[in-house]
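Protein Record: Sequence and Backbone Structure Tokens
======================================================
Scope: a single protein chain, as residues and as a discrete description of its fold.
Tokens: labelled as protein backbone structure tokens, with as many entries as the chain has residues.
Position: the record begins directly beneath this header, with no further notes in between.
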Amino acid sequence: MSTIERAEVFVASPGRNFVTLRITTSDGVTGLGDATLNGRELAVAAYLREHVVPLLIGRDPARIEDIWQYLYKGVYWRRGPVTMTAIAAVDTALWDIKGKVAGLPVYQLLGGKSREGVTVYAHASGADVPSLLDDVARFLDLGYRAVRAQAAVPDVAGTYGVRKGEGIYEPASTALPEEQPWDTEAYLGFAPTYLEAVRERFGFGFHLLHDVHHRLTPIEAARFGKRVEDCRLFWMEDPTPAENQEAFRIIRQHTTTPIAVGEVLSSIWDVQQLITEQLIDYVRTTVVHAGGITHLRRIFDLAALYQVRTGSHGATDLSPVTLAAAVHLDTAVPNFGIQEYMPHAPETMEIFRSGVRFADGMLVPSDEPGLGVEYDEQVAQRFPYQPRYLPVARRLDGSVHDW
């Protein structure tokens, strides 16, 4: 019987920090898992090295479900992003191994294709409305069928989601958190106008999305959603912090704009009420932060019972391993909605060699056995860890606000 012989944790910063787990079996088969938690990377790396890796050695890698339950139920302190990210790394690596042993891509192990490709959305932004419109045009010309639109609020330096220059948007860019100003009323007055401008110029032949990024109270979110109904958004993302799930009932009472939530939530219990009471339309939990393929499939299956569709987080703080795993799962599940996609930096792709392909506004998984991703640890050594933190938002009176 094959057993887990070795499990290694790598931390590298090719454009941003990534934590990668590589499991090797006694038969020499390897599997990769992503363990990246933006701004808390070393916490997960230590959790894996000190507390999880010793538990894996000698175990049967084929027993994915049993190992998942062992790592979850076998610890008194359950859930939370550090624990669930560590479990996700193990789970994803084991699925990668199982696919390689079976000689099949992971999506075949999950039931085969439900679709030929995974529709993704691009991230258009601008320092003002004209530059945003130019960016939307650029992505539509590249073949995207869905575009998220964000523009800098005038005189508010802390606007979320706006690239600096021509590079990839990466908010975790400083060794200590950047403290940014925020003005909710200015945002509420401005954001609807640029979403309307996008529709006025480009029409309704593509999906338009917008990320509120937890910035509003429930009634403010209701007001925003009502204002932009004529824009027919695919969704408004994270309109208010999700700790109080009852809050979404208030939003529902006032607007028909679809709601997407879940990228900072890490378990089926965190989204249970949101799904079963149909307070959201799209669940955005991810492979890496919600316990891996095994647990995310459970969340998606629960969502399917309530006509809630998937819309997993997919920013560049999720490594190509997570993107590949997400595309395999998205390809298989019946209630897929859309997948976030931000191409990684070239130096990232020097380390991670992935078979995921972009074509005609969609991602297509690799047909190589497993996930179809390779990790080059020799290249990774050229990119040592660098402390990087996400910003902190402060209202104009100086008090801390939700970033």
In short: Residues 81-102 form the longest helix (22 residues). The chain has a mean pLDDT of 97. The CA atoms of residues 317 and 398 lie 28 Å apart.
